[in-house]
Amino acid sequence: MRAEPADPHIHREGPNPTMSDNGPVQIRCPVLNVRRVDAYVAITVVAPGIAERFRSGQFISVGVGGDHSSTLLRRPFAVHDVKPDYGGTIEFLFSVEGTGTAWLAERRARDLLDLVGPLGRPFPLPRDPVNCVLVGGGSGAAPLFPLAQSLRRRGCRVDFVLGAASADGVLNAITARRLAETATFTTDDGSFGTRGRVTDVLGKVVREGRSDAVYACGPMPMLRSVTAVAENHDLPVQVSVEETMACGTGICMTCVIPVVGGDGITRMVRSCVDGPVFRGEQVRFDDVGSIPFDALGAPGWKGAGRRGVEQDRDIA
User: Does 309 or 77 have the greater pLDDT score?
Assistant: First the structure.
């Protein structure tokens, strides 16, 4: 099967896409298979132009509903797996929660999907082999699996900490054990692994693994707690935020969050193009969903907001 290029809203994939062109492409690509992965639906598509450009932490945007659907907005999905097989495939997974994901779950092999990707900023990788702990919650753990493979190729030690509400929500426990030196699991109801949350066991994993860095992906409250644990252990932490994205390309501004820059100034940045990966300590988790009074451009920023900037510098 060969992927068929769509109209060139972003970039038309040529017959021989090269790595020198690292921008996203829009492509109509055939479904290779649809399968269940624990509580989730996983779809693998043949998308060589996206697979060749992909870096761990980036995501794709998928058109749903078909050509004549009234469902206009695309759906963003983290990439769970990338393989060179069959000309270049990518896999994404999701829970069925609305009309868009319900439509996707009904796709079958050879159906065509309209994808744009890869989008967003990837996880930064260490230059030298270090010990890394990867923390994920539910389906949010998906981007950590290609990250684990990238880290292993660099000679890094990988430890997984994965959590969910119940056993069926813990993503790919078997694969996590295969990829990592250790894999620790938590569930809210105690049906699998340790009863509790990922942050209840994270400190122990960090100490026993002599971790040098933390990577995390999942719900915002989890990312805030993981960042606090990492800061308590004086470790750098990279978080991939989960924010609602309407366009995925930075146009609509629906996914903005407050982030403190290296200059100590808070800016409202777009998760889809400035992220989704950020340094955890720079994300103002308590202010997500609002515009802080001391953010650049906010009313009063040059007055009372300057004191907030100085406070941010002290914290950073």
Answer: 77
